């Protein structure tokens, strides 16, 4: 069914291959015709393979988010929750660097959890803090309408990341900032695989929303004492 459509779009009639070849008295013209047909089939095959790969990628990303949600309700500290967020970002976007800056924590070295940055120096920490504070208002507005395309200022050069990076603010249901999520790659790592246009930014924004929902849903005091002890860290850490 797809091949018939492709043939008609290429300017051919709906005739069978044998009938089409009868219109070519010269064998050289027949060869040219067959080569064109073979090229069209090969292009179609490549398009199908690429689409299949993109769909598999999106399915894998969805499963990664679901797995994160199942694990998140079992962690027992704010630091472990942040570590899980960073691990999930790297798996989700297939990137080399992920960071989670808690905006509800004490603003000291413990508010930043990351993976892939190595040993963060004081200069890097301060540069990232200043970048977050300077852009917090614009990110807060952006988080209210995730579909809005807002330019993101470049990250501090001290971090050593590529210009192509992702940043999303995690907010609660009232729009209050909870954390800043970052995803990127160092200069020695490959860039993001986009898949569908805007795929990386879309899935990262969706993940940020899920993180916010989880933080807020685990905040209230559960009725059972054991659950109260288990999830109580979210009241102070976030």
Overview of the structural elements:
The chain has 238 residues and is of the alpha+beta class. 54% of the residues lie in helices and 10% in strands. It is built from eight helices and four strands; from the N terminus they run ααααββαββααα. It has helices spanning 2-9, 17-21, 27-72, 78-93, 122-144, 199-217, 225-231, 233-237, and strands spanning 97-102, 112-115, 166-171, 177-184. Strands 2-1-4-3 form a four-stranded antiparallel sheet, sandwiched between helices. Helix 3 (27-72) packs antiparallel against helix 4 and helix 3 (27-72) packs parallel to helix 6 (199-217). The longest helix is centred in the first third of the chain and has 46 residues, at 27-72. The chain is elongated.
Overall shape: elongated
CATH classification class of the largest domain: Alpha Beta
How confident is the prediction overall: mean pLDDT?
A: 79
Largest sheet: 4 strands, antiparallel
Strand content: 5-15%
Question: Compute the gyration radius: what is it?
Answer: 25 Å
| N-to-C span | 55 Å
* CATH structural fold name of the largest domain: Beta-Lactamase
The computed structural class is: alpha+beta
* Number of DSSP E strands: 4
Number of domains: 2
CATH architecture of the largest domain: 2-Layer Sandwich
Helical content (DSSP H or I, runs of 4+): 40-55%
